[in-house]
Fold:
Amino acid sequence: MAVNLDKPGLWKQDTKSSVDHYNKWFMEFAPTAFRNTRIEVTSQVEKAIIDANDMLALSPDLLRSQPGILRTLRMSCCPPLAVDRLVGLAGASKSLVGSMEEGTIALRRKPEDVTLHLARILTVISKLLDPDIFVWVPEGRTPTPVERHRASTIVADRLTGAVANPIIRNAQEKRQFSVIETYLTHKGYQKQQHPPGLPLTSMSPGTFAFHYSAATGDTSHHVNVSIDVLIQPHVLRPNKLPIMVEAKSAGDFTNTNKRRKEEADKFKRRKPTYGEDVCYVVFLCGYFDSGYLGFEAADGIDWVWEHRIEDFDQLWTPEP
Structure:
């Protein structure tokens, strides 16, 4: 039985309700998340500035010992440098810069090669270091504590947006899981992780699990993918497989339309393993318009809205 994919007359109003639902949560959560992140990032930036001898001693050895400091250095430039822009200006290895953004430098790289690329990066950083932020650098003097903190705050403001967004996404995922858990618990379900070595058809009735790693694909090529939520109804479905749920949230329409093929690809990969009648739905909260919904429906993917979570009841057979 279809839940929402066959009801296009409801899509427009559901989108409005979903946007309102997401925005209400965002307005309550985002300011606190941004403020807390800004405080933490400011402290990290100030430490980075001190470690760099107040930007007066930038060296390959510093980057080698603290590769994660590169993010602070990029945001200390005028204008702030995106990763690709820095790579292009410095003629540096994109993979090296990418690994430094993650806080590491690959050990397989030759030391002399690393030193060369780090020197190129620092040449660009030194030329573009913002003199209106680091007012003491042109004068070659030590900053006052007030000057250092002010510079740290400005650079942290530049960094906080990028850092806060993943925090908000992670918090939304946790909240969606919490909403699902609360709903299922009230329906008499128990949270119980299914052993990875056992077939999904042996999952205990009336249980659910989060972040289950399942093999997908055909017999010649298996790929492990994470299933956000598994729900095994009290009354088993004919194929005895649990319901597979992908939790999705989005704060703008552009992002959802860019990524709308993700669910279709995951759905197709699961069919060879679990059959054509696998029950796979997405749990939606936020900015999902008719374009996105039509794309999902065309691929046979159904969905449950967070603002109307009781639609889950349509996915299982009522108990006798």
Observations:
- The chain has a mean pLDDT of 89.
- The CA atoms of residues 64 and 111 lie 10 Å apart.
- The first strand starts at residue 190 and ends at 191.
